[in-house]
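Researcher: Next entry in the queue.
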Amino acid sequence: MTEQQTIIVKKEKSMAVAYLLLIFLGSLGIHRFYLGKTGSGIAMLLLSIIGAVTAIIVVGYFLLGIVGLWIFIDLFLTAGMVNKANLIE
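Model: Structure for this entry, 89 residues:
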Protein backbone atom coordinates (compact mmCIF):
# COMPACT_ATOMS: atom_id res chain seq x y z
CA MET A 1 0.00 0.00 0.00
CA THR A 2 1.33 3.41 -0.86
CA GLU A 3 0.80 6.45 1.24
CA GLN A 4 -0.70 9.44 -0.41
CA GLN A 5 0.70 12.84 0.29
CA THR A 6 -1.43 15.92 0.21
CA ILE A 7 0.22 19.15 -0.77
CA ILE A 8 -1.46 22.30 0.43
CA VAL A 9 -0.60 25.42 -1.51
CA LYS A 10 -1.21 28.61 0.39
CA LYS A 11 -1.40 31.70 -1.77
CA GLU A 12 0.69 34.48 -0.28
CA LYS A 13 -0.80 37.86 0.45
CA SER A 14 0.76 40.79 -1.36
CA MET A 15 2.20 43.68 0.64
CA ALA A 16 1.40 46.08 -2.21
CA VAL A 17 -2.22 44.97 -2.46
CA ALA A 18 -2.67 45.24 1.30
CA TYR A 19 -1.34 48.81 1.36
CA LEU A 20 -3.35 49.85 -1.70
CA LEU A 21 -6.51 48.53 -0.06
CA LEU A 22 -5.57 50.36 3.13
CA ILE A 23 -4.97 53.65 1.33
CA PHE A 24 -8.02 53.60 -0.94
CA LEU A 25 -10.57 51.55 1.03
CA GLY A 26 -9.11 51.70 4.53
CA SER A 27 -12.15 53.25 6.16
CA LEU A 28 -14.20 50.24 5.06
CA GLY A 29 -11.69 47.76 6.53
CA ILE A 30 -11.21 45.97 3.20
CA HIS A 31 -7.48 45.50 3.85
CA ARG A 32 -8.33 43.62 7.04
CA PHE A 33 -10.73 41.31 5.18
CA TYR A 34 -7.97 40.66 2.64
CA LEU A 35 -5.56 39.70 5.43
CA GLY A 36 -8.05 37.37 7.12
CA LYS A 37 -8.89 39.72 10.00
CA THR A 38 -12.64 39.44 9.44
CA GLY A 39 -13.77 40.50 12.92
CA SER A 40 -11.85 43.76 12.96
CA GLY A 41 -12.78 44.34 9.30
CA ILE A 42 -16.47 44.14 10.21
CA ALA A 43 -15.92 46.45 13.18
CA MET A 44 -14.16 49.01 10.99
CA LEU A 45 -16.86 48.79 8.33
CA LEU A 46 -19.67 49.24 10.88
CA LEU A 47 -17.93 52.18 12.58
CA SER A 48 -17.56 53.89 9.20
CA ILE A 49 -21.16 53.30 8.18
CA ILE A 50 -22.62 54.31 11.54
CA GLY A 51 -20.28 57.30 11.70
CA ALA A 52 -21.30 58.49 8.23
CA VAL A 53 -25.01 58.09 9.00
CA THR A 54 -24.82 59.82 12.39
CA ALA A 55 -22.49 62.61 11.28
CA ILE A 56 -25.55 64.80 10.89
CA ILE A 57 -26.00 64.73 14.68
CA VAL A 58 -22.27 65.25 15.40
CA VAL A 59 -21.82 61.86 17.13
CA GLY A 60 -20.67 60.40 13.83
CA TYR A 61 -17.61 62.63 13.70
CA PHE A 62 -16.32 60.95 16.85
CA LEU A 63 -16.77 57.50 15.25
CA LEU A 64 -15.14 58.64 12.01
CA GLY A 65 -12.27 60.06 14.06
CA ILE A 66 -11.76 56.65 15.64
CA VAL A 67 -11.68 55.04 12.19
CA GLY A 68 -9.18 57.66 11.01
CA LEU A 69 -6.91 56.93 13.96
CA TRP A 70 -7.28 53.20 13.32
CA ILE A 71 -6.23 53.69 9.67
CA PHE A 72 -3.18 55.68 10.77
CA ILE A 73 -2.17 52.91 13.19
CA ASP A 74 -2.75 50.29 10.48
CA LEU A 75 -0.17 52.06 8.31
CA PHE A 76 2.41 50.69 10.74
CA LEU A 77 0.74 47.34 11.51
CA THR A 78 -0.09 46.18 7.98
CA ALA A 79 3.40 44.92 7.14
CA GLY A 80 3.36 42.66 10.20
CA MET A 81 -0.16 41.45 9.40
CA VAL A 82 0.93 40.52 5.86
CA ASN A 83 4.00 38.67 7.16
CA LYS A 84 1.88 36.81 9.70
CA ALA A 85 -0.72 35.90 7.06
CA ASN A 86 2.04 34.49 4.85
CA LEU A 87 3.51 32.19 7.51
CA ILE A 88 2.91 28.54 6.72
CA GLU A 89 1.71 26.77 9.82
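Model: The chain has a mean pLDDT of 91.
Researcher: Noted, moving on.
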